[in-house]
Specification:
Chains A, B: Its EC number is 2.7.9.1. Chains A, B: InterPro entries: ATP_grasp_subdomain_1, PEP-util_enz_mobile_dom, PEP_util_AS, PEP_util_C, Phosphohistidine_dom_sf, PPDK_AMP/ATP-bd, Pyruvate_phosphate_dikinase, Pyrv/PenolPyrv_kinase-like_dom. Chains A, B: Its cofactor is Mg(2+). The structure is a homodimer. In chain A, about 45% of the residues lie in helices and about 15% in strands. By secondary structure, the first copy, chain A, is α/β, with parallel strands linked by helices. The first copy, chain A, folds into five domains: about 1-70, no CATH class; about 80-170, D-amino Acid Aminotransferase, Chain A, domain 1, CATH 3.30.470.20; about 205-340, Phosphohistidine domain (Glucose Oxidase, domain 1, 3-Layer(bba) Sandwich), CATH 3.50.30.10; about 380-410 and about 455-465 and about 545-725, Phosphoenolpyruvate-binding domains (TIM Barrel); about 475-505. In chain A, the strands form five sheets. Chain A has an eight-stranded mixed sheet with strand order 7-17-16-9-10-11-12-8. The two termini of chain A are about 35 Å apart. The interface between A and B is large, with 60 and 60 residues.
Chain lengths: ~725, ~725
């Protein structure tokens, strides 16, 4: 309490000096308001710490009453209002606010009486209004930003109570930043620091049609953005079943738990009655990109009866609801969903983005364009994409990707090709295995040709096969049950199934994440990586023959020791040289490695001696540094951990700078010491996360790579990071 | 080749200067011998590098012939011999060797003619013998160690050809080191540096009875020490089946693969025809402490016919064989196995160790005792044990343990108590859960009372529950099959089984190593850690009431962030204070954490602020730093990796100093910065590994903790590390 007493004493003295009088005694409710006002405006870290550490008793109000010295409730020539220097919802120029005659501030905020607009205030109280207008202009020029203001008129005289830089919506942020540049109040660099990647994301999601007629049912917390429309279901099995037959469903639960995972995957969106932004539903939905509204406390859910009630409304299983993950609103019925004009602009350019849009939207799209262009001009970080198909590559290129930072080749081994991998695994001898690998070669080569064409002239980093081979086999449990049941009921079990079961049992791992995968697979399964490198070299030759400019790079996953990399590198270089000689082209290409194990980061100086590039795999690096299996922990104890404050954001969303970041820094320093020409990137999902991008910029990486949808965010944030000072402030 | 030519030229000049003549031309076989002799004696790093890098062509012999200037085959007054200054097999004082009249060195080595002893030489060639005796004394005094010598007598004149410090057996190493001290040739510190922990281990294993009659069948590589006697089986299923019915079996395979794991576990020992010391059989057997002889190439195994043939001998399934893992010898039939006198000494003291033993053994046991005592005097590292029972604790204390560094409480949750853990997991509500936990309390308390009593006056570090709870439930796969089969065949499935299956499915994890375990469990399952801390505090109170000196310590597993530790620490301190108040004792005890995740090492400075001690869990730290699941990788690709030279020894056997060691160093430095009073130890299996112990000494830890059997090794090696200089040389 000593600290707080000191603050109060300081404050007393301040007031004494300014006003020349001691603290008056006010009625209780005004004292309470005063305490709140002082502590709201006492906007420093110290005050926040006091507030958290000490419980502030009511009677302290006697000591800190300052702002009740003017009154808006002294008659018809008095009043109170709030004002913004521009519209905080749209960014529209010109002041904007609410005014109440003969009232105190509480009345405006409480919403008990109907307020008038500032324009109306002009006619009621013209003189103070004129002065207010002038003050608003002054404040904006001084703060060079949108300000919000509280003011009181006491017997015709205007008193400015407080001001601060005002909160705004995402569209307003972009428009205001751009227009303040036009008004020569700020520079383009400053404008860039006024918008965020998360605001841009909000503008990219599809939205509920703003013109559609809508009935608001209730409101919860905006937990994961986007719009979701579907038939209400109350349990996961139903969600899965209905989704499988083609229905769009919305999972509605009191709260979710790990058992709901399959239901959440099957649903368009998730709506819960309980839990905040760090609840299980919120964390998991954000992780999988599902729209989510959580903690809508008015929902009275009866899971047995399969109904949810809000006031007079009762919604049954199968009824339609629409949710807005950006606002937390829940609407009755099926609202149409429209794609965002900003997304159209990002995909197809400025012309397409503004075509047929109203003036406000045109201004918004142009502001986004202007700020993104500036970000591209100033950023030092390159932005690549994680993509495994030609289609994704093209889309990412439209969104501004400057190459592929991660092509996961395992995604090319699914579907029909699974059978070929199965043949590789079950092969009785090396000849059979080689035959199966040979059959994969042309398929893999065609994949690469398409991708190199889509990214012609830009780097395409191909990661050699990473997951354990048993991932391509049936699930041990399902297969065991199938065979055991067949045996018990006297059905015939095929020889193939038996062979398969033996193979699955043999290859089963307790912790596949830490097992026979990545470079370990390449060193153990003869011919596997060779096939992939050959396919890539041949694809490069085909593209060269067609007059293209293919720029493939070979990336080795899960390296922990330079010896592993050397063995693969030697083999790869030999194959590339062979194919080159055969086809008559110089096919030399960079060969590098993922840095995704703590040991790789710790021994990066050595490893760099054999690597043309490093790509930090921060997903796996987070898993091993923390000892977290993402598949398990996000849906089990993460909610608990956030509730208890172990961390405030999942380390899989935003890079854990203290722990994992320390390894990234060690990796960068060692890498540059070991090979001054080394190229350094990052291809974990953190590559699309704003805070993490700033960290990567300051850590000295050359590029980030992220999913196509996050490319614009990465461009913007890389630009913002570049205009920040070293310590991360603008 | 240039480097080699230079060496040869240098050598030529040297000989020219010394002998005053040019190199003579000798017959081919003498040239070959000369080359070998020169390069054997050219005992420098440079020569070794030349030998490896360049292939030495035969014709170079013309240039390097030096030592053939004397001949032992010039008649009956000539001869050649080898001599040791002491017996390299037993360490017995007095020279020892072989002599051949009228012969060259090759004849002695080749074993074609029967050699005579040096005593016989004394009577045949008394004059040169006397001079040899004198030289041997001189050499030992000069080198202050056992020397081996090659010499030739040419027409009655003795020529000393070469000498070097001689190889010796484990018993000889201890005796010679101790006796050289008595002879005042070396200090006790030097003596300590002349013996190794691995030699001590060899003396601790049971051995084949040296007096038993034996027929050597063949010899392979000494891959994993000890003696194993059992019935020969040729496949793992048979090994498992026979072992289950109580037979002692010996698994004989051409080579082993991961499928043989169950068979290796079931067998007394493993014998293979193929593969070296890094083969699958060798690595896995060493890992599990099984005796193993591998690469016995004479074995002709016919797995189908279930026979193995060596020359005229045919052994069938079920026949007895005996193997010696320290020598690689394979004997026919059943030899008796005797416990080692050194082990008896370690367990029960010097009196017991020498009682009834012959003179040689008495000298050996006394030498071991003397060197171990000195190691204890000079070592800075404390030596604790990993033990979970009072029995193990007592045994470890006899072997010299100075406390318990790791008590794994999960081992106290097996057997009948499993059912209680099952009740905790299946509890429908908090009350049911608490009831199950309450039932565990007295059992857990009794465990602790016994252990604190066994280690009275010494620290007992109790690790709170670490493994995932589902480890205490039935296996998902087995249970699924059981229920599916019952359903398919119309059998009734109990409600309990269904509940259990649901729980197992719900708690199933893809990578349990990285899942809900350790401190995460403590923070998620309410009351679990509280139960354990309460049991420990109550046990301490009971021991205090009984007049004992209990010194428990609470260790929190799998901490990655100081926040986790703080939450558990606060709760634990409150419980300890409560129990203390209740029982009327001061029960305050150190609370610390494992450092077993990279993040814990990287943020050790912060974590140290809340920890009284750190214990490095290098097993898990190796798993996460390398991304290796030990259960999976040791039996899958490790053999491959050692063959390819990715590493030469498993990082689970000897600490990977470059990678994992870097984190240990970071952890130590950060820990001491964050809390100068912090106590630092290590409780992974590396705590008993010689090379690792030296690393831990130099890294500045306070103690190592290892399994009881490795305590003497740790004492010896900690002493050796202390007398080494900083760079690890003696």
């Amino acid at each position: 309490m000593d600290g707080l007493k000191k603050v109060v004493e300081d404050y007393k003295e301040l007031v004494r000096n300014v006003t020349g009088r001691e603290f008056p005694q006010w009625p209780r409710e005004q004292l309470d308001m005063a305490i709140r006002a002082v502590f709201d405006s006492w906007n420093t870290e110290r005050a926040r710490i006091y507030r958290r550490r000490e419980r502030i008793p009511h009677d302290l109000g006697t000591a800190v009453n300052v702002c009740t010295m003017v009154f808006g409730n002294m008659g018809e020539d008095s009043g109170t209002g709030v004002a913004f220097t521009r519209d905080p919802a749209t960014g529209h120029t010109g002041h904007y606010g609410d005014y109440l005659v003969n009232a105190q501030g509480e009345d405006v905020v409480a919403g008990i009486r109907n307020t008038m607009s500032l324009d109306d205030m002009a006619s009621v109280h013209p003189k103070p209004f004129k002065q207010l207008e002038q003050n608003l202009r002054l404040l904006e020029t001084h703060y060079r930003d949108l300000c919000d203001v509280e003011f009181t008129v006491e017997r015709g005289k205007l008193w400015m109570l407080q001001t601060r830089v005002g909160k705004r919506t995402a569209p307003a942020a972009f428009r205001i930043a751009s227009e303040l540049v036009d008004e020569q109040l700020i520079t383009m660099d400053e404008a860039l620091s006024r918008v965020t990647g998360e605001q841009l994301v909000q503008l990219m999601f599809p939205q509920l049609d703003p013109d559609a007629e809508r009935t608001l049912l209730t409101k919860g917390m905006a937990a994961s953005p986007g719009a979701a429309v579907g038939k209400v279901v109350f349990d996961s099995p139903t969600a899965v079943e209905w989704a499988q037959r083609g229905e769009k469903v919305l999972l509605v639960r009191r709260e979710t738990n790990p058992d709901d995972l399959s239901g959440m995957i099957a649903s368009e969106g998730v709506l819960t009655a309980r839990g905040g932004k760090t609840s299980h539903a919120a964390v998991v939905a954000r992780g999988m990109g599902r729209t989510c509204v959580c903690g809508a406390e008015e929902l009275a859910i009866d899971a047995k009866a399969k109904t949810v009630t809000v006031g007079e409304h009762t919604i049954n299983e199968g009824d339609m609801l629409s949710i807005d993950g950006a606002t937390g609103e829940v609407f009755l019925g099926e609202l149409s969903v429209v794609s965002s004009p900003v997304m159209t602009y990002l995909d197809d350019g400025l012309e397409a983005g503004i075509k047929g849009q109203d003036d406000e939207t045109v201004l918004l799209v142009k502001a986004v364009d202007r700020l993104l262009e500036h970000a591209d001009d100033v950023r030092r970080l390159g932005v690549r994409t994680n993509a495994d198909t030609a289609e994704d590559s093209k889309h990412a290129r439209e969104l501004g990707a400057e190459g592929i930072g991660l092509c996961r080749t395992e995604h090319m081994f699914l579907g029909d090709r699974r059978e070929l991998i199965e043949r590789v695994i079950l092969a009785a001898d090396d000849d059979e295995k080689q035959a199966a690998l040979d059959a994969l070669l042309p398929l893999q080569r065609d994949d690469f040709v398409e991708m190199l064409e889509a990214m012609d002239g830009l780097p395409v980093t191909v990661r050699l096969l990473d997951p354990p081979l048993h991932e391509f086999l049936p699930d041990l449990n399902e297969l065991s049950v199938k065979i055991a049941v067949a045996e018990a009921t006297g059905e015939e079990v095929s020889e193939h199934d038996r062979t398969l079961l033996a193979a699955v049992q043999r290859q089963h791992e307790s912790n596949p994440m830490l097992g026979l995968r990545g470079v370990r697979l390449g060193l153990t399964v003869k011919g596997l990586f060779a096939l992939q490198v050959r396919a890539l070299a041949e694809a490069m030759a085909i593209r060269k023959a067609a007059g293209g400019d293919p720029r493939p790079e070979v990336m080795v996953p899960l390296v922990g020791s330079i010896n592993e990399l050397d063995l693969i590198r030697d083999e790869a270089q030999q194959i590339i040289a062979e194919v080159g000689q055969d086809k008559g082209f110089d096919l030399s290409m960079p060969i590098g490695t993922m840095i995704e194990l703590p040991r790789a980061a710790l021994t990066s100086e050595r490893i760099a001696g054999s690597a043309d590039f490093f790509s930090f795999g921060t997903n796996d690096l987070t898993q091993t540094t923390w000892g977290f299996s993402r598949d398990d922990v996000e849906s089990s104890f993460f909610t608990h951990y956030m509730d208890k404050g172990v961390f405030t954001v999942s380390p899989f969303e935003t890079l854990d700078q203290t722990g994992v970041g320390a390894l990234v820094k060690l990796g960068v320093e060692g890498g540059r010491r070991g090979n001054p020409k080394i190229h350094l990137g990052i291809c974990g999902e953190h590559g699309g996360d704003p805070a993490s991008i700033h960290f990567f910029h300051h850590a000295g990486l050359d590029y980030v790579s992220c999913s196509p949808f996050r490319i614009p965010v990465a461009r913007l944030e890389a630009g913002r990071a570049a205009v920040e000072s070293e310590d991360g402030t603008a």
